[in-house]
Amino acid sequence: MRLLGHPVHVMLVHFPVALWPAHAGLQLFASWLPAGAAVSVGFWLLAAGTALGWLAAIFGLTDLADLWAENDASRLTNGIVHAIVNGTALLGFTTILALEYRVYPTIRHGAGFLAAESVLLVAMFAGNYFGGAVIWRHPTRSI
Hints:
about 5% strand
């Protein structure tokens, strides 16, 4: 799906890609930053990244349906892998948001949490590789 000639999914995916690592960084350095500021800002970065991630996923599914109709097995396979991996990361960050919401603004994270969030970030970046392969391996074709 396009808005003014630009692919909406591709425009929206940049928000979680930027906001989720920013959340992780703020949580990692929260003890060195002003009391409560990192936690509060981090929570809202996570909320915005997750909300925009869900919006990106909806538009991504419409693009995946377009790939299905094209009968291009390579692009469709990459699109499906991208959807599964990044969908899993989206569900993980949605779970983190729900857990943080329950205790906001007194959010505290330990090493286990930071490790789990790091795994989700690695998954997101790996999934983005497959999403990029859908577009960049066929630059003359667009979704």
